[in-house]
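Suppose a classmate hands you a notebook page containing two proteins, each written out with its sequence and a corresponding row of structure tokens. How would you begin to make sense of it? This section walks through that situation. The first entry is reproduced here exactly as it would appear on such a page.
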Amino acid sequence: MNGFSVFGRFALQSTSTKWFTRNDIITLSSSFVVRGFCTQTLTGPQKYALRNELNKKMGNAVENRDYEEAFRIATEMKSSQISPDSITLQTLQMVYFKLFQFEQVFQCFSEAIQLRIPIQRSLINNCIRAASELNDLQRAKQFLTFLEDGTFNTTPNASSYDFFLKCCESGYSKDAWEAFRSMQRKKIPPSEFTFSRMAFSFANGNDWVRLEVLLDIMKENRVKLEPKAFASVLRLGFESSSEKILNHLLFEVENNTAVQLKFSALKYMCSVFGERGDIDGLNLCLKRAVAMGLDLGGAYKISLLEANARRRNLKETLTLLCECVNDGALIRTDLFGTIITCCGTSVEVIDQAYYILLEMHQSGKTVPVQALNVILNACARKCDVERAFATFAELKSVFKCTPSVQSYNILIDSCSIAGQTSSAFRVYEEMKKNNIQPNNSTFSFLLLACVRDEDLDRSLAILNSVRENEELRPGAPIYIILIRKAARLGNQQLLSEFMKLHEKDHGPVPNDTKMYTKRGQVVYDSETFTSNYKDNSKLKYQKSQNQSSTPQQRKSLSQILSESSIVS
């Protein structure tokens, strides 16, 4: 029987008291001929049965990920004057979730209010979930209050609070704590998922006091943290130097079966101890890794290198540097800066570092060119061009190393800082003679040398030659440095040319890069220099380094770990 014949049969029997059979309702729901006066022939129970069948079809469409079909069924129901029920609206909410149309989820709730449909808990839970996806804490709190106050004669369950706590993960520790206390009052048992989300909220909110209380509760209930929450709690444990948090995390690492979690936790501990120069803490991490059968690999050695560099242990630092480079480990740029600082505190220390490397070479150990570049960098920082040239010469004659492009760049930079522009260009010519391909930094150092000499013709010639090559084209920070140098020298001609080239390649120069007096004289003010080109990651690293070096009244991290019964 097709849809049209069913429609005709129903229309003819509209004045009859005969009820349609279930098979007729199913056939009608599949035919979609339910518009207009056809549905006016149906009685209340018949409409109810038809709506149930359409709801089932909507549910099947959502399970099969056929969201267009689900929307089509919902549209047919509205056009046929079959009012939706709570199940219909919940199914529509699930479709909107799949399509990331979270605002439409709230529209379903509003429609239920307008049609006076009994509000079920799942309808409100979906609204809390949508608010958490939008990170809208106020709206999530409003819907949770509907459940807690019994506004619609329904109460919250564990899912209600889980969705709300997801919204608190950004750091709303106070709201998360209030939700947890509400769960306790209503005697709703929290799940591991609930505990992990609360821990995540406390960690991101830097609320280590509440986190300590939560960890005690978790320990009593033998609940484990999820890996995502574990990483955030671990960070806060180190930042707060909380003995209770660290002991709980060590217990977690010891008893957790997830190998990846153990490895990630110990690797993170190594990086923190390295930044703080805590060698004892690193040794304890290595001890725990060996006991668990884990190989930290290069992570431990890099962290140990950083710890020794921060503690100014010169010999250990250079030995570890050579080992790491020879093993193929990747060393961060900021860590190289720390090593250079360790080796370049004075001329005497530079010489001492050189003789340490010489002794290693004479004993048969391989001294990589990166280690010798550290000595060259230290000489450049001290503006000791003579010592830098001597080191560069012995790099080839004594250590039998081939200078890298970084070696030549450091030497050029050293000459530039000392004002020896002719020497910088002689190094550049030797670089080309030895078939070492110059890079962007090479031309940047040569440009700075020309600007210091106020050599307009040569600086513009270099700029125009490298601007034609996309790989060597100077970035905006280089132009800003050149503009700063020209402004500091008060050279209006240089300043004007650099600003024109900056505008051609990178757009207008930021207004706060330069300042003019009323007479038109160029005045450079370091406090007004633009922050658009600052290396934020480097500044952040320096900030955390300064914070970690400040003395604290609490126990040191290595002391906490050594006193822990789990570690010992």
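The notebook's second entry, a different protein, reads as follows.
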Amino acid sequence: MAPGRGYHSHSGGGGGGGRGYHHHSYSSWQETSWSSYGAQYGWDDGWQSSTSSASWQNGSGPYNRNSRNGWGSSNNQGWGLPLEEGTFQSQQPLETWVKPKVEALCSYCYVEKKSLSAKTVLTPAYSARTMRLDFEPPVDLSLARGLKAVQSSNGSFKLTHSLSGLLGLAQPEVFLSFMSATNSRVVATLYVLKTIETFFGADPNARPQELQEVATLAEAFVTQKLQIRVADLRKRLLELDERLPAIEALRSDFLRLLRWSFFELWLRLVPDPKCLIGRGTVWCPRFFVVDLGSAPWSPYDYSKEYPLVIRDGVIMVGQPEGDVGNADAMRHGYCLESKLVQNFWVEEDHLLTKLRLGGSTLIYAAAPDAIEAGSGDGDHIKVPQDQDFRSLGFQFESEFRTARDDVLCQVWRSDEAEKEANSYLEVKKTTHLRGMAGEFKKLKFWLQAVLGGCAATVVCTTEGEDKDVITNISRYSVKDMESKLDSKRVWSILSLMLDHIQNEIFNKQSSTLEEANGPWTLRILKERGPGQPVKLQVWRGFDENEPANQMMRQRVDDMFGELEEIYCDDDM
């Protein structure tokens, strides 16, 4: 997105069904867009193997340590002391630097999420989400003020795109599928009540008065339509009771479950699944790489447990339990996108990406928030529907059903060239970017943008008294963010941490690859304060009572069983 109104720019120096594995070559994106990605951001210079003692002694690192921001002050004890095994520190001495290689494999997008029993995937992604150029602060994200402005006199709400944005729905297309339903106002009002309960608690007396006034009117409307008492309505909403209208849609947005990435789809999108398997390969969400890579620089305490499943040397990483909680900051993020992103209700493009770092290969699907205005057809781009796929150049390739959620998934492919890797942007909302906390946020923003092939990050801050109002919108290029960091140190320490995890699993706690197969847990621990070391712990097993973990074991058996069949057939 070129600098425009409302923000500051920080630019800086065919086939049928079957298995669905499609074998053909990709050339345009890998060879033209991503091959120069490292050089574009300066990764090709200065990566010779060297000791880091000089930079460590003079205090260089992701942040310059000085008395103003607290780095190197008396309370940052322990820098330079010998570290225990499995312990890592932002300023630890390094013998070698490790250079990352980021390679895009393909892009894809989900469309037609009106049904919970089917998924449609287009590859390459048909980008519909573009940044708007007509926004400027202030931007009001207040739930109470927003709801009060659109609530009808009878307490109900009209089901609209703007309401889905205000509520910050993670599955807006499912919500919008009820737009023409006869009970659309009941559904919309139930969503409003569930949003209030989710982010502001089930106790009406603990909510802000203005918000509870909205809830009281909404409850009166719904209870009259459903002919139930207020107490029964609150109980059904709290439990997401099956007697509620549109209950499956409500559960898709508000039932917070542990999730694993859609690995089965990844295997069907690449020319040859072999490029995704082998010892030293990690399948994971992008946020896992961001969390692990930034942890040594966090000024906060940190404790997360990631479930792992291992098969034939491949480490699959799930979502940590601590990431499924609810906070209004989550709603703020989706709500902000509805203000800044055209066609915000369409799911983001997904970029299936390979990161080679030292002895590890990481596979993840990044989901940048939008493309730069001018990178595609802009605001006039048409959001695809099922009847439009062939007219847009897509041909049906395959369909499959997995144990993941018993949903039928169709894959449609076109011969269109992939978008340039740096066509994408991230959108972030935070309170401020000042001091040590602000520097840590910028480190995470940079790492997420680099891993997602983004040109820049648009950062929106709420620095006034009202934390529901965006007061400043700034654009930071990846190159500018990286110029403020010691990126080589970030990558090198991340590589050491990944090496440690694999060494623990495959060498110390297992004698063969087959012995390592099964469920594991990775814990990342850090005490509060800058310079405090990060401790990594790995052990066998995970929470077997978690349904997503149980299902993942079955999914792994299905995936690798099918791969064995394919390669056995190829050998015959």
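A careful reader of the second entry would note: The radius of gyration is 24 Å.
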